[in-house]
Amino acid sequence: MTERFQPSTGPVWHRVCDGPELTGSQCREFVIADTPGFAFRHQGQVYAFINRCPHLGIELNWLPDRFFDREQTFIQCSTHGALFLPQTGHCVAGPCAGEHLTALPVREQNGVVEVQVSPD
Ligand code: FES
């Protein structure tokens, strides 16, 4: 009997940028499958979140690729100033304190940063 193999339907990784582009607090915005997101490196690790504030559901930033507060400590929503931990997306101050950003699966492989975005 001949074995039949199904084509892989595993998760798809989408390229965001080259890894060395993410230095300091430099972020990279992207839109994949109509989902806006951003990626950055924090303490050597790459993170990615959907660009949507849990307070009003709008995008966090006013300026391209700018997501961090002045001290480069927290992700900051530019509309009402909510502050989010970069490691988890948890909101620690502002009108949506206790809520969190939506993290995306992210990896850095062969010098390229890639994310997975699930269609809603
Ligand atoms: S919309 Fe982000 S804090 Fe209000």
Describe this structure in a few short sentences:
The chain is 0% helix and 33% strand. The protein has 120 residues and is mainly beta.
Q: Could you walk me through the main structural features you see in this protein, from its secondary elements to its overall organization?
A:
This protein is an all-beta fold and 120 residues long. The protein has a single domain, classed as Rieske [2Fe-2S] iron-sulphur domain (Rieske Iron-sulfur Protein, 3-layer Sandwich), CATH 2.102.10. It has no helices and nine strands. Strand 3 and strand 4 form a beta hairpin. It is globular and about 55 Å long. Bound molecules: FE2/S2 (inorganic) cluster.
Topology, element by element:
Blueprint: E1 14-18, E2 27-32, E3 35-42, E4 45-50, E5 75-76, E6 83-84, E7 91-93, E8 106-109, E9 112-115
Antiparallel strand pairs: 1-9, 2-3, 3-4, 5-6, 6-7, 8-9
The protein binds FE2/S2 (inorganic) cluster.
FE2/S2 (inorganic) cluster binds next to loops.
